[in-house]
# Entry
Amino acid sequence: MGRPAPAIRLTDPQPVALRELAAEAARAAGALLRERFAAGPERSVRAKSTPTDLVSDADLAAEKIIRALLAERRPGDAVLGEEGGTSDGDGVLRWLVDPLDGTVNFLFGLPQWCVSVAVHDAAGAVAGAVYDPLRDELFAADRGGDATADGVVLGPPRDAALADLLVGTGFAYDAGVRARQGAVVAGLLPEVRDVRRLGASALDLAWAAAGRLDAYFERGVQPWDTAAGALVCACAGLEVRELPAADGLPSGILVAPPALIGALAALVG
# Structure
């Protein structure tokens, strides 16, 4: 057996090393999920906040893999995971983990889901990775560095007019909130090229960084949904803004080319 990988010193958290660990953790969970997806529908599924907000044994198993790796390599860090809540640490870092973003897609056999792993310090995002197991694509970034897809540098965003933008979005689990979101999209559609709802916010963000979407917005997202993808977008040259809660809608995120984010915010904010 080879020697175990060395732990990263708690007193010297280098962004590139943390980026590599985020990618390793995302790939490890992704390998398990790819096997579970190929094996067919999950048998153990339950609802969380609403009947449409689902969690499966696959979500839990994937998060367990990530937490175990982080506990081995970064034992002093805190971890915030979608399924396992917060575990406190005595270090300077906190990991934000979505072990399976796009659970409903996963459960319905739709090939649009991913793993998101990011790490923050007191100043914000340090590093993050979004891994798409079915396409074997890894999107990653670290503070002060480039955003990459499988090592290829991403950005800058293409020049486009508002009417040319292909915009990604998502909808909340609560039916009343979804109704309000539908009205926002109805107003947006005549002003842009088109709108896509793909069902995995971290992957939507990664695809925006890669130019597959020009912009993306969504309300009701959680920190683990957006932590890695937002950093990838920012490092690729997109502007990332918080959407404040308004008109019965929860707060959210907006990502777009800097020259157009104001006009887009006026339509969706």
